Amino acid sequence: MFYILITIYNLQIARSRSYRSLLNGDTDKHIFLIDNSEDEKILDDNYSAVLPNNVTYLRMNGNCGLSKAYNEGIRVAMLASPEKAWFLIADQDSVFPPSYLSEAEREIAKSPDAKIVAPDVYSERKRISPVYRGGKLMFVNSGLLISSEVFHSITYDEQLFLDFVDFDFADMLYQSKFACHVCRSKNLVVHQSFSGDHKNGYDQD
Fold first, then answer.
1. What DSSP designation does 135 have?
2. Strands 86-90, 145-147: parallel, antiparallel or unpaired by DSSP?
3. CA distance 76 to 148
4. Quick check: helix, strand or coil at residue 22?
5. Are the C-beta atoms of 89 and 146 separated by less than 8 Å?
6. DSSP annotation string for 55-115
7. How far is C-alpha 58 from the geometric centre of its chain's CA atoms?
8. How many helical (H) and strand (E) elements, i.e. helices and strands, does the chain have?
9. What is the pLDDT along the chain (205 residues), one digit of tens a residue?
10. CB atoms within 10 A of CB 139
């Protein structure tokens, strides 16, 4: 079972590339749309748009930042079903191939001890994740696959709003010694756009 967390800000869900690319397919999944939008019309439109698709809609009542949004999605998902599952983190502007979840199942099966599966993530210019910095594996959140077991130990730091949320979470995973599987499958690749191309400090040299 995959729980897909999509965070969105002031964007109609019909225009979200991640939502469009993950909505279909036969893989067992449930989407949680976490809406940080401040525009009332967009909020109303998004709520109406996702209802027919059996999506859990979480309205954050303003822009609460990424960490709070992720943690709220995690909390609601784990309350709804405490059984073991895998979370997929998705920004609103990520593009996933149609076979992403089925390929993720295969990669998870290859590494039964792994609690994190990190795919290749590309910006418009180059591959930006995962990379090694100072001997530590660093990655962006979007596309990341995380076992629900991880969230019994750590969650996102809500003191961080946007910048360095990825870096901080990756560092917590490193300190907690959770096993990570770095995936190089061409069918498990995420294409991502960033404001300013990339702001989290992971650009590969």
1. T
2. antiparallel
3. 12
4. helix
5. yes
6. PEEEE-SS---HHHHHHHHHHHHHHH--S--EEEEE-TTEE--TTHHHHHHHHHHH-TT-S
7. 15
8. 5, 13
9. 999 999 999 999 999 999 999 998 878 999 999 999 999 999 999 999 998 898 999 999 999 999 999 999 999 999 987 778 999 999 999 999 989 999 999 999 999 999 999 999 998 778 999 999 888 899 999 999 999 999 999 999 999 999 899 989 999 999 999 999 999 888 899 998 755 333 443 333 3
10. 25
Instruction: Provide CB contacts within 8 A for 160, sequence distance 6+.
Output: 65, 66, 67, 168
CA distance 45 to 64: 20
196, two tokens: 């300013």
pLDDT on residue 69:
97
Structural contact between residues 4 and 32, judged by C-beta atoms closer than 8 angstroms: yes
Q: Which amino acid is at 42?
A: I
Q: Are 36 and 48 in contact (CB under 8 A)?
A: no
Residue 98: cis peptide before it, omega within 30 degrees of 0: no
* Cβ 50 vs Cβ 113: under 8 Å: no
Number of residues that make up the chain: 205
DSSP 5: E
SS3 state of residue 11 = coil
SS3 content of the chain, % helix, strand, coil (to 5): 30, 25, 45
